[in-house]
Hints:
- The chain has 233 residues and is an alpha+beta fold.
- Helices cover 21% and strands 33% of the residues.
- It has helices at 2-22, 90-96, 211-232, and strands spanning 31-32, 36-37, 49-56, 61-63, 66-71, 76-79, 98-101, 106-110, 119-126, 137-142, 151-154, 167-174, 181-186, 193-194, 196-203.
- The radius of gyration is 24 Å and the shape is globular.
Amino acid sequence: MSRTLNRSCCLLAALLAATCFGSNASASVVAWGAAQNTTGASNVSTNGSLVAAFNGGGANTTANGVLFTSSNVLGTSFVGALNGGTTGDAGFDTLLNSFTFGGGTSTTIDLGSFLVGALYEVQVFFADQRTPSIDRVMTYGSNDGLAGPTVNLEADSNNAPTSPFGQYAIGQFLADGADPDLTLATNGFANAHINAWQVRLLREPVGVIPEASAGLIWSVLSLGACLKSRRAA
Length: 233
């Protein structure tokens, strides 16, 4: 009887360990704040510490002290989104004046890899002052798809005289081991695009044991107990 019990105990521990390694957690979801009208370089978030920042389709540029690296991740670049306008800040103008586009009406951008248990911030910018494009709206979400939290950004913020530079939004997510992507979807035009985006670390993980690691530790302890019990028997 004791041998049968011991074997069952060890088998259960092994199955639990395999389950921990084989399971996939659902991806982290970005919780978005409301869309904000873009007014100037001070809109660029400096919360926490910078993880990565990208200028879609344009040159490397610095805005509000944040260095944005050129990226054409969606395949095609365009320069001239401000249509001759200026925010009064050359670095910020460079940021808003270009965008990367492509991938059809819905696509995703890989945001990178993140520390489990850490809190992050994502900021996105969308602007296009060209006459045929000023009414465009882009929807941004995370890789739970567009059924989850999203935010709509207007290309010209309704062409308001005090803010003719599009809109931006800031979201947060708690990294859970399944890294989120940035989802882009158009509202009535051919290709998704984005002017700029950045990711910032707001809080380091505190006393967090990843789910798989916690399961592995429990399984190892259980196996040790089983083996000790078998030797005693």
